[in-house]
Specification:
Shape of chain A: elongated
Oligomer: homodimer
Structural class of chain A: alpha/beta
Largest interface: A-B, 26 and 26 residues
Distance between the termini of chain A: 24 Å
CATH architecture of the largest domain in chain A: 3-Layer(aba) Sandwich
């Protein structure tokens, strides 16, 4: 947690907050802060700055703060990721937030097991928690938009073309030989398939929706590794 | 596991192997292979090809195989990573292997807690297992060199300059404004700090050893995310 992210409900005054729960524990046990100490803070959806600890004990962290910096700009990036298995989902969602993607779509695909969609990790409060962890990691206050697309075809045929718009659409797909475009036109829409990849019909649909194939090379990477490598390459 | 990685001790004949344990379970339960089915296989340290299942039950997987492809080339990359906390270590080691780094050095640093060096995850067999998982993920057969550098100064002063050699040395460090070099000269040596970053004296030592600062921007990424983003950017 490189930023103590304040939620509106934490505020007890315009320049004062009171935290409990996970963030309290983290500040006590990992940051080992003390009364009078400073912490990097930010207000969810707002500015960032410095907080000073007024109280810190087993019950609560209270701090006063000044917010005078803008959060880092979002990348003009929409990630369209085939829903990963639950064990991987949290890391992917947090990584997408920490990398600064403006929007994340979790999409169904043939090789996404039906059971993944029933995972408790897909509950809104669980997804939000992972996004917040990603923001705290990266020192950002702006939540990315998050969309669950449980049906492949309506999303890809009806929504995806307008998401790509006048920007660059890319679909990561091994064996296509598609090279990383130079002089990328923002915004970028980037689709990453499931373990086992897109099936041919899905790949064709994605291309018809305006995405160009991008080949990461002979190595098959885990979703979260591929995601970070692609963002590092494109931006 | 995108490649069934055969170890020398699995071979019961030059073209036949017998597997038990984790790989057997994975092929049965995840690949759901059947007798007569094909699997991508590779021999650790050797070539890759196709295997055909001769037997598959609770006790063993037996397969015959033909190896006729070279593994993907390694990246001319030495990663020097401050030892991550144990929870993160496995993912970092597997990610480094899957990304294709030729060499990985786990280095001590001021902000690496002493206890991390006592973790059972640093045992050779545990580290090797993570490297193998990374190779299986990426479809590679060549283990990267792995070195534990428990003392910062001797490694950085005595070993690092010759590792950098005539290539490019980089140290990821926020706030330096160091840009990604264009026209990178291989081999690349890339140092990534601990959570909390390098202290000034360490950063200075790394620069004296021939590394140039590289600034990833305002976002602070987890080690494994930063690692993949940097490899994506540099190669």
């Amino acid at each position: 947690m490189n930023l103590v992210l304040l939620l509106p409900e934490d505020l007890v005054a315009p320049d004062r907050a009171r935290l409990t729960g996970r963030r309290l524990t983290h500040v006590r046990e990992v940051h080992r802060a003390t009364v009078g100490g400073e912490l990097a803070v930010g207000l969810l959806g707002g500015a960032m700055g410095r907080g000073r600890v007024l109280r810190l004990d087993a019950e609560a962290l209270e701090l006063t703060f000044v917010l005078d910096q803008a959060p880092p700009p979002k990348l003009p990036l929409t990630l369209v990721i085939a829903l990963p298995r639950p064990k991987v989902l949290n890391r992917v969602v947090a990584a997408a937030a920490s990398l600064g993607a403006a929007r994340l779509v979790l999409l169904n695909a043939w090789k996404v097991e039906k059971a993944y969609w029933a995972s408790p990790r897909l509950r809104p409060e669980s997804l939000r928690e992972q996004l917040l962890l990603g923001l705290e990691q990266a020192r950002d206050t702006m939540l990315p938009d998050l969309q669950l697309a449980r049906l492949f075809r309506p999303f890809v045929e009806d929504d995806l073309p307008s998401l790509v718009g006048q920007g660059t659409g890319l679909v990561a797909h091994p064996g296509t030989g598609g090279e990383t475009p130079k002089g990328l036109v923002a915004p970028v829409t980037l689709a990453i398939g499931p373990e086992g990849g897109w099936i041919d019909a899905e790949f064709d649909s994605l291309c018809r929706a305006g995405l160009r194939p991008l080949d990461l090379g002979p190595r098959i990477l885990r979703t979260e590794t591929a995601l970070a490598a692609l963002v590092g390459r494109l931006f």
